[in-house]
Predict the 3D structure of the following.
Amino acid sequence: MFNQSRIKTLNQSMVIALAFTALGCAEPNNTAAVSSTAQIQSNKVSGAQQSPLLEVTQAKVRDLLPGRSMTAAYFTLKNNGTTAVTLNGAMSDAAKAVEMHTVKMVEDQMRMRPLPEVVIEAGQSATFVSGSHHLMLFGVAELNESMTITLQFSDGTLLPAEFSKVSL
Ligand SMILES: [Cu+2]
């Protein structure tokens, strides 16, 4: 939610350095956004389904480099359902903010760009890997052997997944 609204305010030619600046400005709002979505999450998960229609595999989070609080996470998401789903965000209690990014070649340089959403057709998979789509985690204090990242979909579905720490 707040991801998308922030993305709209960013210029198309934004480079990643600007993304960090924007994030710093937005931090007080992040806390509110996280706690309200967390509440939706508990309702959803306890009430209805842990949607087996959506399957997360290869879920990995890069270990923090010394002195850094930012890292990246990767996964494969399979849509076993009969209709398309739209992944439009992610969040984690262990990070101040999680953004979906992709990497594009701009004038012979690899640049990270915000990725507002990914549509996964029925029976298809979306792959988040190094050098392409990825999750960017900001404000991570420390990483245990694994962390929970909750994937958010446009229909309100929340899908918590366990990401294992790897050193890449
Ligand atoms: Cu990134």
